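Target protein
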Amino acid sequence: NCTELLCEGDNKEKVIPTQCSPVKEITCANRYPPILVPDENGCCYHYECQCVCSGWGDPHYITFDGIYYTFLQNCTYVLVKQIVPKYDNFRVYIDNYYCDSEDGLSCPKSIIIFYKSTNVTLTRELMNGVMKNVIYFNKKIVQPGFKKDGISISMLGINMIVEIPEIGATITFSGLIFSVKLPFSKFGNNTEGQCGTCSNSKSDECRLPSGKIISSCPQMAHHWHVGNDTSCSGVPPPPIITTPPPLPQCKTPLCKLIKSKVFEPCHDVIPPEPFFKGCVFDGCRVPNASIQCSSLEMYATECAARGICIDWRGKTNSTCPYNCPANTVYKACGPINPATCEPSSVEHSGYGVTEGCFCPEGQTLISEDSNICVSDCCKYSVFREKWMKDCQECVCDKRTLKVHCTRPKCPPLTKPEYCDEPGYMPVQVQISEDPCCTRTECYCNISQCSEVTHKCSVGQETVITTQPGKCCPSVTCRPSCAVNDTFYSPGAVIPSGPCEKCTCSNSSSPHRAFVKCEPVICDTYCPAGYKYTKKPGQCCGTCKAVACTVTLGDNTTHVLKVGEVWNPPGNNCTFYTCENYDDQFIPVIVQKSCPSINPDDCDPDDIRISDDGCCRVCPTQPLKSCKKHNTTTVIHYNGCVSPAPVELTYCEGSCDAYSRYSPEANMMEHKCTCCQDIKTSQRTVTLTCSDGTHLNYLYTYVEKCSCVNTEC
């Protein structure tokens, strides 16, 4: 995921994102645009040039690094081989032949590709009086779509294509035009042959088999002869390369198209000069003007590979025709992956377009190796022999893959349907058992009914109803009460004044009704805590709360006025009060909690009931008041001792004492009280003596203390 995990020790890890250097623009010697490719780690990218070598005509070469030259010999030569073998015997040969024997001009006859133990030959042969593309795989003819040993073979427009995905190689051949495309990352600086070195430098392009670099690529091309056949020209290479002289009064009108506005959109992408030179060279040495077509075709092909469409054949005055089978149409810029009825396993790489024969709009090619176009691919025939489409039974012609559909006959109806009732009209509906067949059903269309004109007498209401099974409505008159142009049925309540209730009642006379009104009797009863209150404009009043109501557990109810406090009988710790918020009377309950009594701080005889009768309280005493205290000690008496500590009690604490002047007595008054026992008891403890005898010892135990008056 483009990160590195660094172990820092002590069981600690650190994640470091991969840092990518800025992508640098590069310039390619062959003028092809550089392509963006991933680094080995797959996280960063860099630009690299494309290794593309192409040739056409008799023949003209453009090497991997963009050098143009012409080579006129009819032997088999090495186009591409590896300097250091890395990829399983991969190499490409070209086999030339004399296409004009009088002047010694040669043209490509076939392209031969070697990979591993496989030999693939792309050529054109005369079959049934017509020159056709032929592909040999290990000397056996194969069809486009063939795949074996890592090699894929296909057709794209007029081109035969061999692709080797493992090494990224693509080789194409169309008779007079060939091209070899290799990835720079695998073959850069490691190719030699007539296509050059793919080093992105023109200085080392003309390399001999010995490794020596010379300046003349036509001279270099002679050295790449294959085999020991000395009967073909060019073995050994001549010291001086000569070419046939041009024809007298040479005219090449087709070549001018290369520099015209027809190819102008491509001029800035691919320089036209090499193709123009090759075209003039061919046109001035071969009498057949069609030889010039290869230069135009090559230039248009290179432009199409870069996404630039050049529709040029129509500008050649029928000199460079492209004939297509009767059921296909020529397109100068067709898709590189045209759709077929059988999905192709070969996807041609690239974003460009190609010329060739394609199916008309709305039709699809049956397969990649077929010239038959169909409007329907019979895709259902894979699963079943027949199928239904738009209520037609369809079958597929397995020879042409065309679909033939016929409409099946519907079963005869058992009983015809006639729509005689008013308002009904015949409608065709699908049969649930067979949705492709219909039957006639009668459907109600109320717009077909005649207008209702019946009128009722005064005091009667016109009622429109539709009877079951009928479409058009019928009119009846019924007695009703008419009030303010509104009809009310018998039993209906009629709006009236606030203190009366009016209803529509049946009259003793037939077909008549009358309005009957009765005064409204108000219910003035209100529950406790509520008061009956009348409102202006209303006949009857309502019960309005005026106090709080408290309901106890025995279902007794007590009414409280605002601010009143009430205790339920027998419960002095709970009281209720009533509060008013925005005319809402809310009872509030208050529950009193009693403080706890510490028995050490209060004598049980001093405990009493609080003034409100709720809690048991102990009168408060001053700090350190007179009270009984407990202590434990071991008693020693005449050599005898208690076997365990004995609890003893004593009185201690402050009592009232004062000395103050009394105006009434005109003298000082004194009061003295002291903390002393007011209740005691005698208790006995058995002491153990040193001689082993026991002694019963009697001592005084203070039961209660209090402040006692004494003389000052």
